[in-house]
Specification:
With 93 residues, the chain is an all-alpha fold. 67% of the residues lie in helices and 0% in strands. The chain has one domain.
């Protein structure tokens, strides 16, 4: 990344929507992978956060920015935790 990071408040509507969609897409992708591994709890948590993020992305009012930030943080951490965990064979995702 070559620029200074922006807060949601500093982003345009298009930038916000793109970020929300990207995180929701990542959650859905890791949920699919977790489903293949039989991790139903991770699937449920990921899909729930992804759906909540998608619900916000259409009409994100200024009063919703803090909630969106928290959901994005949770979603990004969940994806990170999944990608960093050790598989049964001793390898990381």
């Amino acid at each position: 990344m070559n620029g200074i990071s922006k807060t949601l408040n500093d982003m345009t509507l298009v930038e916000r929507s793109s970020l929300l969609d990207t995180v929701a897409d990542a959650l859905e992708a890791t949920a699919e992978e977790a489903e293949g591994e039989g991790d139903a709890r991770f699937v449920a948590n990921s899909i729930c956060i992804a759906n909540t993020i998608r619900g916000l992305s259409g009409e994100l009012a200024p009063r919703d920015l803090r909630a969106a930030e928290l959901l994005l943080e949770q979603g990004i951490m969940l994806v990170h935790q999944f990608s960093s965990r050790v598989k049964p064979g001793g390898m990381k995702h």
